[in-house]
Design a protein that fits this description.
Elements: H1 17-23, E1 36-45, E2 49-59, E3 62-68, E4 77-80, E5 85-88, E6 90-95, H2 107-113, E7 116-121, H3 126-139, E8 145-148, E9 152-154, E10 161-164, E11 167-169, E12 171-173, H4 177-190, E13 195-197, H5 203-216, E14 220-222, H6 230-233, E15 239-241, H7 246-249, H8 254-267, H9 273-290, H10 294-302, E16 308-310, H11 313-316, H12 329-333, H13 338-348, H14 361-376, H15 395-406, H16 411-425, E17 443-446, E18 460-465, E19 468-470
Parallel strand pairs: 1-4, 1-5, 6-7, 7-8, 9-12, 9-13, 13-14, 14-15, 15-16
Antiparallel strand pairs: 1-2, 2-3, 5-17, 10-11, 17-18, 18-19
Helix pairs in contact: 4-5, 8-9, 15-16
Length: about 475
């Protein structure tokens, strides 16, 4: 079966252009994209709160005005937003277009279908990602903005080295400081928007990567390297991913655990980085959580006030809150290529009741730690690690928002995590994340208020990306 996503203009109440087209005998293609207004709508963003009965005017790909409705009607195309709610376009801060080749080509339209108008791709071969992004742009089809890091910058041993199909080649080795500077420059020249540092990097190499990224003007996303702690590595990065390795930093016996970890990594001379990392997590993650010390953890979190944490709660809890138990998951899954549907359903059978009970300690810890991050004022961003762990492009971001709220964020704070924080990571907060004049025209029109219930972000009436109204997806044989 061949899948094709079809974007169409939303049904709108047209006050000028369609009338003209009818007089000319057609109401279809109206030529160049006209100016557009969304009227009578409740505007919501996480900075300015709620503004009722507004008119939002779009010119090209920018919002040109947001104001209270006047009596007169607009003399251009309008959408009547009566009873509806307009929010900024959403971000997914952690995706991998190249993780599953069967999904690479369908992810962009799926993101847009679910109101995700920007994404951060946090690891993959740079040439392939640049090519994919250029092809999407050249197609002329509406698509989310795609910001790429290129490969995971790992140590002498690379976790995602592509040696086996189940672990695709997402990383590259940066074993020393000289190669670190060279690699950052190469990535900048190749088109990377930021860099992503991974877990087997050495501390001296980490520092050089940070320094050269600063020279090149590239933000940094990072896992906590296994040779370091979150309070030493985190303040040097713009974001940290998955909450992974924070458990060690928050443990009463963190020094002992770190010493063990450093000795094992230093003594590792042959094998795959994937097994080295996996074995260290298996050895230390649960004991570190069990040794949690609140005073120590508070001191760690105090160092992360400028480092966005991207918890990926959807991923961290996936074995506890199995996705196919959600009533709408099957419909969302049906959009994927048939081969992926079958593979995912077969994998999910391994999590069915009756099989050995899995340890959910890290899942519960992740939910707990997000509540601590919120209490301590540590910034939080919304990301999913899609498509890893049955992450449906677009759909899973809404699950992440729900989980952030269940972990202690308010609905407004969850929206902030998916709109303002990602823009802050790239220094784009003056251009994105709010519904204000001068901001990019990336918007989502909802049929219900997300501040009443965050699940209402799923009730999408339409999406605007770069000033274009788009909605819908269809599949064809």
């Amino acid at each position: 079966m061949n899948y094709r996503f079809c974007y169409v203009l939303l049904p709108v109440r047209i006050t000028f252009f369609c009338t003209l087209a009818l007089l000319l005998g057609a109401c279809g293609d109206i030529g160049d994209k006209p100016d557009l207004a969304i009227e009578n709508v409740t505007v919501i963003d996480a900075v300015n709160g709620v503004r009722e009965n507004q008119r939002v005017v779009i010119d090209g790909d920018q919002i040109v005005s947001v104001s209270a409705m006047a009596v007169e009607r607009s003399a251009f195309e309008t959408i009547d937003g009566t009873g509806q709610f307009l929010i900024p376009g959403l971000w997914d801060m952690h995706v991998h277009f190249l993780y599953d080749p069967a999904l690479s080509e369908v992810m962009a339209p799926m993101f847009l279908k679910y109101g995700i108008t920007s994404v951060r791709d946090t690891g993959g071969e740079i040439d392939r990602l640049v090519n994919l992004r250029e092809r999407i742009r050249a197609s002329g089809e509406p698509a989310p903005g795609i910001y790429i890091s290129g490969p995971l910058l790992d140590g002498k041993f690379v976790v995602y080295d592509g040696a086996v199909p189940a672990q695709p080649k997402l990383g590259t080795g940066v074993p020393d400081t000289e190669s670190a500077r060279r690699k950052v420059r190469e990535l900048k020249e190749a088109g990377a928007d930021f860099i992503k540092i991974y877990e087997l990097i050495q501390p001296d190499v980490y520092s050089v990567l940070v320094d050269e990224a600063g020279v090149q003007g590239l933000p940094i996303a990072s896992h906590v390297p296994l040779m370091m702690t979150a309070d030493s590595a985190g303040p040097m990065a713009g974001s940290m991913e998955h909450l992974r390795n924070l458990e060690l930093a928050c443990a009463k016996n963190w020094k002992e655990l770190l010493d063990i970890r450093q000795v094992k990594i230093s003594a590792f001379e042959e094998g795959r980085g994937y097994e080295l990392r996996r074995d260290l997590h298996s050895l230390q993650r649960i004991p570190a959580i069990q040794a949690y010390d609140e005073t120590r953890c508070n001191s760690v979190l105090d160092t992360l006030g400028n480092t966005i944490q991207v918890p990926t709660l959807r991923l961290n809890t996936v074995q506890m809150l199995v996705p196919d138990r959600r009533p709408d998951w099957a419909d969302a899954l049906s959009i994927l290529p048939v081969e992926v549907q079958k593979r995912w359903l077969d994998q999910l059978d391994l999590l069915k009741p009756g099989l050995p009970e899995m340890d959910h300690t890290f899942a519960m810890w992740s939910l707990f730690l997000v509540s601590r991050l919120q209490e301590q004022g540590v910034p939080i961003g919304a990301g999913t690690d899609t498509p890893i762990g049955w992450g449906l492009p677009g759909y899973s971001l809404h699950t992440e928002l729900e989980m952030l709220v269940s972990a202690g964020l308010s609905e407004t704070q969850a929206l902030y995590a998916a709109t303002v924080q990602p823009a802050r990571f790239f220094g784009l907060e003056s251009e994105m994340g709010q519904i204000q004049a001068g901001m990019r025209a990336d918007l989502v029109l909802l049929d219900a208020n997300p501040l009443v219930n965050i699940t209402n972000t799923r009730r999408i009436h339409g999406v605007v990306v770069k000033g274009q109204w788009v909605v819908g997806a269809e599949q064809s044989d």
